[in-house]
Amino acid sequence: MIVLLAEPETSASVLYGLYDVLLSAGAVYTDMVAGTPGQELLEVKIASADGKAFHCLGNIPVEPHAAIDDLDRADAVIVCDMYTSIHDVPTGRYPREAAWLKRLHRDGALVCSVCSGALLIAETGLLNGHRATAHWAYRSMFQRNYPKIAFRNESVLCLEAEGDRIVTAGGVSAWHDLAVYLIARYCGYRQAIETAKVFLISGHSEGQSPYAVMTRPMASEDGPISDCQTWIADNYAMAKPVERMVARSGLNARTFSRRFKAATGFAPIEYVQALRIEEAKQMLETDTLSVDEVGVSVGYDDPASFRRVFKRGVGLSPSAYRKKFQRIAQIARPLEVH
């Protein structure tokens, strides 16, 4: 049995997408290709804290099959996304659910999450000492509030804690990858392939990095650092930007680096590189400049250096990134009327 844990903060697309795909394993493919419905291979239930009907995000109605305390066993439980602001740590928000997850995990269940659902698993302590993923926007939150967890913001499906029966999936649509993984685990590889064909699920082989956008919370409590953040936002392409920020702050280099990292989650040079790459990404998505011209525009006179830094941060070369997002632009851009 696979249990989907949902709350009012859950996205309907994640909850009902997972439910539909997992429940279809074994049943739909043969019906589509041979006209003979197969047998459902997975028992899937939706659960909430009290089991009562509620509305999730978008005011979509949800009628759980059970309350969590009515389910004392499961092969796997998936914590669906539970939207949380990147500034609002959900500490203590779900005590009953956290205790229930720990109990099921202790009794042998595989514990999984999608997107911000990883925050609830983090609250249980089960992820301490492990690598895990969630949506890339939660990188800084994990670093600040869950330092015992190695956050993998580039991963779509993190299996590095699989040996301890924990699997985490990245952004909201990463439920596709998690669903295919679970079908393969419990029903076999062939069933996973057939289900993927039914739903046109191709996975996210390039990871999250091409989609990630730099989050930049301002260091409002540290005036010199906040001032430098404001300054570098418009001056990232200048030569020796870190030296200029150190001089601007009035701090010595070591103190500046320590306070900057504490306030932003980035080392100063990493912050500058992230700003440059973020601007380069936007230019590659929309402009017609060559890759080398884009590199120069954001502060890299050496084309090889620009390509190396871009590939390390994004997971794709600048040319591959441009090709990927120009395809999306072609789909999204309205047809021009002549």
Features:
alpha/beta; Rossmann fold; Arc Repressor Mutant, subunit A; 2 domains; 14 helices; 11% strand
Describe this structure in words.
This protein has 338 residues and is α/β, with parallel strands linked by helices. The protein has two domains: 2-208, Class I glutamine amidotransferase (GATase) domain (Rossmann fold); 223-332, Homeodomain-like (Arc Repressor Mutant, subunit A). It is 47% helix and 11% strand. The chain has 14 helices and eleven strands. It has helices spanning 12-24, 28-34, 95-106, 117-124, 139-145, 175-187, 189-199, 223-235, 241-249, 253-264, 268-286, 291-297, 303-314, 318-332; strands at 2-5, 44-48, 54-56, 60-62, 66-67, 76-79, 110-114, 131-132, 150-151, 157-158, 166-169. A seven-stranded mixed sheet has the order 5-2-1-6-7-11-10, with helices on both faces. Strands 3-4 form a two-stranded antiparallel sheet. Helix 5 (139-145) links the parallel strand 8 (131-132) and strand 9 (150-151). Helix 3 (95-106) packs across helix 4, helix 6 runs antiparallel to helix 7 (189-199) and helix 11 crosses helix 14. It starts with a strand and ends in a 6-residue tail after the last helix.
Q: State the end-to-end CA separation.
A: 56 Å
Q: What's the average pLDDT? A: 89
Count, helices:
14
Q: Which CATH top level class of the largest domain fits?
A: Alpha Beta
Q: Sheet bearing the most strands, described?
A: 7 strands, mixed
CATH 4th-level superfamily of the largest domain: Class I glutamine amidotransferase (GATase) domain
Radius of gyration: 23 Å
**What percent of residues adopt helix (DSSP H or I)?**
40-55%
GO molecular function: DNA-binding transcription factor activity; sequence-specific DNA binding
Organism: Phyllobacterium phragmitis
Protein name: Transcriptional regulator
Domain HTH araC/xylS-type: 226-324
